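**User:**
Everyone, produce one record:

**Assistant:**
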Amino acid sequence: MFYDINIACITFPAQPSLRSIMKSNILVTIIVSLFLFTASSAALAKGGDDKVKSAHAECPYFFKSSEEFDKKLEQLHQNLKLSAAQEPSWKDWAGKVKESREAWKKSKLDHDAWKNLTVIERLEKRLVLTRERLAHEETNLTAIKAFYAQLTDAQRKTFDEQFPHGYHCDKP
């Protein structure tokens, strides 16, 4: 048998009802949810994109400057140990890669200029930029095929290992 306990004119039931248990569960859930929301909001406000920055920083193919890019190309050039007959093809390919990189830098979006455009105008501009980048990729592919065809098997292996897999440091 359960008996009510009466202390200072306050009655405590001996066994809580289902309704009071549900109320307390809901209250605990709300408190925990608010805490988690506050903690995650604070973490995002503090620097939510730090992971993206650190992922790029750790990526061997993310170049912060043109100097880093040139240094990486020079390192690849030395590791390939090209013959005199392969040098013109290297210069052609490296020149097109640098040209494509500079064109990509110039085509980066100017966010302030885009703010005043309508949705249709923004989408049209994005489509134009996408077509330009695709044309650069096709030019790069043609140049790299010509260069790759002149490499020996050992050089191809080195080139495959040291050439970037993608723009966001994806690994195969």
Summary: The helical segments are 18-47, 50-58, 66-80, 87-106, 111-114, 119-149, 153-162.
